[in-house]
Every structure is written in C-alpha cells, then in structure tokens.
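**User:**
My hope is that you can spare some time for a protein that puzzles me. This is the protein in question:
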Amino acid sequence: MGGKVTCTLGEVKNRADFIIYWGGNPADCHPLHFSRYTLIPKGKHVPEGRKGRTMVLVDVRETPSAKHADILLQVKPGKDFEVITTLRALVKNQPVDAARVAETGLTLEQLQDFVDRMKNARFGVLFFGMGLSMTRGKHMNSAAALALVAELNAYTKFVSMPMRGHGNVTGADVVMRWTTGFPFGVSMSRGYPRFNPGEFSTIDVLVRGDNDATLVLGADPGATMPQPAIDHLARTPTIVLDPKVTHTSRLARVHITTATTGISAPGTVYRMDEIPLPLKPILESPYPTDEEVVHRILEKVKEKPAWTPASYKEVPCA
C-alpha cells in the first residue's frame, strides 16, 4: 500500500476536531499553524474553535508545543516505528504484548486510549515532522504513519500531512511526482525512474560517495547534512545556484548567483498542503533566474559529443 490520505489546510480549519502532531514542534517551527489552521480558529464544522478540538503531541521530549496540547505522549528515542505498529494492531483489535509496549516508554493503556480517541473523532488529522522521518527507521516511520491513517478511514475520516521545512520543499516533491511518479529518492541511471529511499536518497548517495558531481539548486546541504556528505561535496565538483552565498557555496567549485524567486523572478511555490501559489516579481534583478541558468547548462551539455566506451579515459589519482 502506498500514497497518503490528505486534504487542504482549509479543510483542517473547518472540519478537524482531533489533531495530532508527531515529531514536530510547531510552536517554534510553524508559529502560525495553531492560530491559522488547527487549534484556535473557528471552523464551519468546529464553531467552538479551541474548545471543540483535542490536540495530542507525540515526541521524545517536552517541547514548547506541549503547553498547547491536551495530551502529551513521550516516546523513547528511536521507538516511533514500534509505537505506530502497536497503534495499527490496536486499531484492528489485534492482541498486543503489554511488556513489549512498555519498551517504547508508553503503556498499553495510553495507546488504547489514543486509538479510541482517534476512532471516535469526526475528522482527525496527523501532522508529522522531522522528529519522525529523520530518526531511527526514517522513511519506514513515515510509511507506517501513512498506513495508520489510511486504516483509520475504515472507522472515521482521518488525514495526514507532513510538516515541511523551509523554502518550497513541497514544490520539489510535487514536481518529482508528476514527472517520475515518485516524490524523492529517484534514480534515472537506467534511463527510467527507480524509487528506493535509503539507496537513492540524496544523503545516502553523498555519504556513500556514489556521485562524482553535484548540482545544488536553492538548497544548503553544507549546513544541514551529515559531515560525511558535506566532506564528499567538498571533494568533488559542486555547483551551486542560489541568490546568496551559503555554507555550500563556500565549499563549491562554482557558485552562480540567481534572482530571488518571488521578489525578482516569477515562479510557483507550493504550500505544505500542496496548494500552488503563483509569485510575481516586484523588483528587477541583474541576475538570471534559476530556470534560465539550467536551460543554458542544458544547451551546453547538448553541444558535447555523446559518450562512448572508446572515449573513456582513466584519470590518475593525485
């Protein structure tokens, strides 16, 4: 089973009476989320606003978001997958070993109460952040969470939505989906898209040193990725397209300054619920747009002769 059951943030505002934040701290990272879309606003089917909603926070520690929650479930680090698997079993009324559940930092009673509340909700939503997707289990945690939400729809209406980070991350996923059928972790090395997170994901490719060149557009992996990945970026030819100098720019062979999208360049960004928002420039820029630079690079690549085994030459190591 794949995919996700989701909706727009407007539907969350107007319908959701049961809200879960898992592995995220929206009070700090998405400070307007509570007031605009989830907890505070009065919706068409939730006219009481905050009084008509229940919020559950699932995390490994007590964060500033905890004071806004009705229920805090504190999971032991690295035990998210086990908790979600237990919840899926309880949703289907399957027997669960209480001793094994205790290893997650929660009790069977807590999880059973959680499941009962989810089943009894009129409209539930699960927001999950990097605390779930970047801990032990990684993409398997996200897949399990999406499966849990899908299975809850046998009892009530439930949706899920990732809490995306900076800059148009959702837009990158959307474009990858409509061009390849997959959101990330895609390899085109055989001439067609292959999807395998953990093998073809950017961090994994860089840490293993599989690539011998990197093109970075509007991102800063040199500031966020693990040190082995950053070291590989520094060892190999790295080209950066960005309006400003970043950590990655300082270790790159080439930095191309581009116009800022939405300020000096037109474009489309996607909100975290995948609603497209067109941007119109308000200032002129002497720099080209990302699109113009990529097209120029493609034209130069087309001018190069096609690779053949006879043209391959080994380069001696320094």
Summary: The chain has a mean pLDDT of 92. DSSP finds 14 helices and twelve strands in the chain. The first strand starts at residue 18 and ends at 22. Residues 139-152 form the longest helix (14 residues).
